[in-house]
């Protein structure tokens, strides 16, 4: 019985949350979401950049070794 009550309470809370989000709050949530996406993208790009740099440096090292062997 207690569990049932808690479940209904939670459902009720959820419904209230869904219906009573103020427009400003909605806007803020949207902005937060967008920022999160951007930061994810940024970090991914940075990772890629560093990876590429490392690959380049590896290549150049291998090239220099090859040249020295010649």
How do the helices and strands line up, and which of them pair or pack?
Layout: H1 2-19, H2 23-69
Number of DSSP helical runs: 2
Number of strands: 0
Unreliable spans: none
Instruction: Give the overall average pLDDT.
Output: 76
Helix amount, in percent? Answer: over 70%
> In percent, how much strand structure appears in the residues?
under 5%
Gap between N and C termini: 84 Å
Q: Give the overall form.
A: elongated
Cα-atom radius of gyration: 27 Å
Going by helix content, strand content and strand pairing, the class is mainly alpha
Order of secondary-structure elements: HH
Largest sheet: number of strands, sense, barrel closure: none
Features:
70 residues, mainly alpha, 0% strand, elongated
Write a structural description.
The chain is an all-alpha fold. The chain has a domain of 26 residues. 93% of the residues lie in helices and 0% in strands. It contains 2 helices and no strands. The model has no long low-confidence stretch (mean pLDDT 76).
Brief description of this entry?
With 70 residues, this protein is an all-alpha fold. It has a domain at 33-58. The protein has helices at 2-19, 23-69.
């Amino acid at each position: 019985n207690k569990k049932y009550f808690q479940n209904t309470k939670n459902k009720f809370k959820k419904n209230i949350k869904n219906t009573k989000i103020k427009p400003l709050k909605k806007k803020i949530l949207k902005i937060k979401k967008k920022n999160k996406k951007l930061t994810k993208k940024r970090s991914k790009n940075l990772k890629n950049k560093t990876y590429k740099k490392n690959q380049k440096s590896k290549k150049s090292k291998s090239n220099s070794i090859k040249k020295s062997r010649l």
